[in-house]
Model the fold of this input.
Amino acid sequence: MAVLHPESASDIAATIKHIWLMGPRSQLTVAARGHGHSLQGQAQAHGGVVINMESLKVPQMQVHVGNSPYVDVSGGELWINILHQTLKYGLAPRSWTDYLHLTVGGTLSNAGVSGQAFRHGPQISNVQQLEIVTGTGDMVNCSKEQNEELFHSVLGGLGQFGIITRARILLEPAPDMVKWIRVLYSDFTAFTRDQEKLISEENSFDYIEGFVIINRTGLLNNWRSSFKPQDPVLASQFNSDGKTLYCLELAKYFTSEEINVVNQVGQKKLCCYSRGRHFLLSGISSLCSPIFQWN
Ligand SMILES: Cc1cc2nc3c(=O)[nH]c(=O)nc-3n(C[C@H](O)[C@H](O)[C@H](O)COP(=O)(O)OP(=O)(O)OC[C@H]3O[C@@H](n4cnc5c(N)ncnc54)[C@H](O)[C@@H]3O)c2cc1C
Done:
């Protein structure tokens, strides 16, 4: 029925209070909309009011450096903007999603999972404080220490326990450089066994994520963003006859002085796996070289 473009958290509070005061007989519903990327219309309210969170530009992003760095952001902020802003201070959030054109409120209402979750937990485990507009239209601060029940309900709460208008996100020093590796498997058991081993090891990688590739259109098409246009020979070697593949995506963070060490350690760790666990793809011989993609 209507879209609210809030300029402040008070605009949201006033709208929700109004709907609350209409009483239980009112059929009017309300939903926050982040970047609208959820798949089943969760950011819509049929015949109701949609709150366009991306209009909310306050508070302005504020990075706090120091021993426990953090950034205060609006619930409608995109993670990509947070990355750009925090990098100016040599910092970055500790936990991510793969895709960054999602809002803080949108992913904190779910979980926010990516390759750093094995180390830091999902994004909802890396939030210190929230400002919430509750279902009665009240503005409330919450954290583990203050209004704890609301804090834990809203995080991962699918937008059902209140609207996140501000969040305090924990940061860590951003790496200078990243070694990025993708390793392919045809065998599911070997893939999960290696993944579990890597995530349980101290000092392995800084980012570990596994995924399935339904390889109908060829790896080159699936991974078109992974290949440089000037590298057609490497790309054309990936041919798996349409079989389903499994992929471990790994990254090691390092400083520019550590580049040689990282190359050696990465190779050694991966080679050790390939010997013990049939790492090289069986039945997909044309994939065997190169099986590691170093970028
Ligand atoms: C290409 C792509 C890649 C993705 N990759 C990942 C990934 O790697 N890891 C991962 O975990 N997820 C991933 N997702 C899923 C994504 O995290 C969710 O779809 C997320 O909800 C989208 O955020 P959004 O800002 O678009 O939220 P919306 O779709 O707009 O909203 C999602 C839900 O949150 C509620 N909501 C939105 N803002 C607020 C707020 N401020 N306060 C309270 N509730 C709110 C909405 O009402 C709705 O219920 C991906 C999605 C896409 C499209």
Observations:
- The longest strand covers residues 163-173.
- The radius of gyration is 22 Å.
